[in-house]
Design a protein that fits this description.
CATH architecture: 3-Layer(aba) Sandwich
CATH topology: Rossmann fold
CATH class: Alpha Beta
Order of helices and strands: EHEHEHEHEH
Number of strands: 5
Structural class: alpha/beta
Distance between the termini: 13 Å
Oligomer: single chain
CATH superfamily: Response regulator
Helix content: 40-55%
Shape: globular
Largest sheet: 5 strands, parallel
Number of helices: 5
Strand order of the largest sheet: 2-1-3-4-5
Radius of gyration: 13 Å
Number of domains: 1
């Protein structure tokens, strides 16, 4: 299902969480990653990447630019407006989830999560975005 060459952008202000996400993605067969510690740095990484990012996995609560602000910036960018986007969050408030959905998030994973639950959500997001583009 996954192309091992899909470039994945992992965004979280906690290095340990980025490593956990990357390890989980590697177990799915994904091999190429960019990392960023906040939404502002992530947007710079997207815009400066020579290769197009094929999947974005971002935390919600980060300094400088939140995951929601980053999501809105991604959806406003012509190159990345349809990029598969998965939000990692401890936020379970209905209004916050609604904000993310209205802003174009494909799915979200509540923290803490298991590698299996992350895999299920990544597969669902990937099928939704890549499958609909085929």
């Amino acid at each position: 299902m996954f192309d091992a060459n899909t470039l994945v952008l992992v965004v979280d202000d906690m290095t340990t969480m980025r490593k956990i996400v990357i390890k989980s993605c590697r177990s799915m067969g994904l091999t190429k990653f960019l990392e960023a510690a906040d939404g502002k740095l992530a947007m710079q990484a997207l815009l400066n990447s020579e290769e197009k990012v094929g999947l974005i996995i971002s935390d919600w609560n980060m300094p400088n630019m939140t995951g929601l602000e980053f999501l809105k910036a991604v959806r406003a960018n012509e190159k990345y407006k349809n990029a598969p986007f998965l939000m990692l969050t401890a936020e379970s408030e209905t209004s916050q989830v609604k904000d993310a959905v209205m802003s174009g998030v494909d799915n979200y994973v509540l923290k803490p999560f298991t590698p299996a639950s992350l895999k299920d959500k990544v597969e669902a997001v990937y099928k939704k975005r890549v499958g609909s583009a085929a």
